[in-house]
Amino acid sequence: MSGLVIRLAAYERFLLNGAVVENGAKRTSLSIKTAHANVLRLRDAIHPDEARTPVKRTCYLVQLILAGDATPEEIVGPLLKSLEQLSQVFTDADSRNLLNTASEAAIKGEFYQSLRALRLLLPREERLIASSS
User: What is the pLDDT of residues 54-75, one digit of tens each?
Assistant: First the structure.
């Protein structure tokens, strides 16, 4: 079992199965060996008021699971529907690969990996919104 490796900046905080953990004074890497552990970097967290775009709302759905505010059973259905809707907008091959990665990870219960893939779509979404204004 390889686990999840996260790299942390000095004093960076993250949620691990609902507990806030803070790194020390030096950068470090942590290897989380427990399968399906819920990890959310607080710097990546989206405030509910900021979830105003389709990709941010989809990220927020995943975040609810990682933060322990919702169960996977409650969120996976709406999450997969949202990912399908995004696939109708992001039609380039690279974006499709990211959406496929996010979908497959969500189906496997690997929500951190799903969020990682979705976050890569945020700059693309910003460019699409800016070009349509």
Answer: 999 999 999 999 999 999 999 9
User: Taking each helix axis from N to C terminus, what angle separates 122-132 and 54-66, rounded to the nearest 10 degrees?
Assistant: 150
Helix (H, G, I), strand (E, B) or coil at 72: helix
In the numeric block, the tokens 């700059």 are attached to 123
Q: pTM score, two decimals?
A: 0.89
For 74-117, write each residue's pLDDT tens digit: 999 999 999 999 999 999 999 999 999 999 999 999 999 999 99
Q: Count Cα atoms within 13 angstroms, Cβ side, for 82.
A: 19
In whole angstroms, what is the distance from residue 11 CA to residue 91 CA?
Answer: 39
3-state helix, strand, coil in the chain (%, to 5): 55, 15, 30
Distance, CA of 110 to CA of 114 (rounded, Å): 6
What is the distance between the alpha carbons of residues 9 and 24, in angstroms, rounded to a whole number? Answer: 9
Angle, vertex CA 59, rays to CA 54 and CA 61, nearest 5: 95
What beta strand segments (E) does 1-133 contain? 4-8, 13-16, 19-22, 28-32, 39-41
- The number of C-alpha atoms within 13 Å of 96 and in the hemisphere containing its C-beta is 4
